[in-house]
Amino acid sequence: MDARKFALCFALAALFSCGANYRTQNFFVSAKTPALAKKVGDQAEGYRKQLALYWLGRELPAWEDVCPIEVIAGPNHEANGVTNFVFMQGTVGRWQMRVEGTEERVLDSVLPHEITHTVLASHFAPMGKPVPRWADEGACTTVEHIAERSKFDRLLIRYLHSGQGFSFQDLYHIKDYPADPLPLYAQGYSVVSFLVAQGGPRKFVDYLQTGMSTNDWAQATEKFYQYNGLGHLKKNWLAWVSDGGGDVSNYAAVPQASEVIVAAAASTPLSELANPTAVTVASTSVLERNWVS
């Protein structure tokens, strides 16, 4: 048995040893009760399908490596999540995911956030490198409930007024999480929302593909959004934020047809699931994600 298969078997054995377990095509869930394990597993598969369609316009093929999900749920647990994976020879695997919080918060915010990381990692695996931090965390935050996203809007204003915002040159090239990751989450979420509103999520993914391939974000920004570099983008984004967000029509680099403008505060793709979970708010203080090389 090679090391990769041994590690997977060891992880699954560890999960089998405690609580209840539930297996789907792509996930192996460990939780405190069979009902919760099944709920998380079924919801994870639903999010995986819906979020792939939303960001990529297609479903993902089944993963070769099952993704173990450890669920820690209870009334006094802060909401947080971690996802680890490894890029290898054009693919991605060796998944490890942990989601924690109240049951509602796990299902409503932490799980879709972490599943979005796996969708983007799967798409960009042939490049062998992770999505830039601002874009990755920003995109994942856009699929949380609007109450949570509104909290990040309020945090962003505080960070900008206190000088905790990032220059776009710094933002676009951050590789490691700063000591306080919340300003990165807040600004990344806002910039992603601003760009996704100008043409939709698939255009944004194509933008990332180009920028990650060339490492020339100024050129990619001009090609996809017609801003004359990152400075122009930052100027218009700041004006949009200062004016309260919402409709981006007046802040796009060039006038755009109404059909390509997407409301920045529109419902998330999760609202389109047949059985969405209850609306709750996740903690903004401890959500995180690790990338393992």
Describe this structure in words.
With 293 residues, this protein is α/β, with parallel strands linked by helices. The chain has two domains: 3-127, no CATH class; 133-267, no CATH class. Helices cover 48% and strands 12% of the residues. It is built from ten helices and five strands, in the order H-E-E-H-E-E-E-H-H-H-H-H-H-H-H. It has helices spanning 3-16, 34-56, 103-124, 133-142, 146-161, 168-171, 182-196, 201-214, 217-225, 230-242, and strands at 20-23, 27-31, 67-73, 80-88, 91-101. The protein has a five-stranded mixed sheet with strand order 1-2-3-5-4, with helices on both faces.
Q: Which structural class is indicated by helix and strand composition?
A: alpha/beta
Can you tell me the number of structural domains? Answer: 2
Which of globular, elongated, flat, extended, rod-shaped describes the shape? Answer: globular
Strand content: 5-15%
Helices, by number, come to 10
Low-confidence stretches: 271-293
Question: Would you list the SSEs in sequence order as H and E?
Answer: HEEHEEEHHHHHHHH
Percent of residues in helical segments? 40-55%
Order of neighbouring strands in the sheet with most strands: 1-2-3-5-4
The largest sheet, given as strand count, sense and whether it forms a barrel, is: 5 strands, mixed
Rounded Rg: 19 Å
Distance between the termini: 22 Å
What is the averaged pLDDT score? 86
The number of E-state strands comes to 5
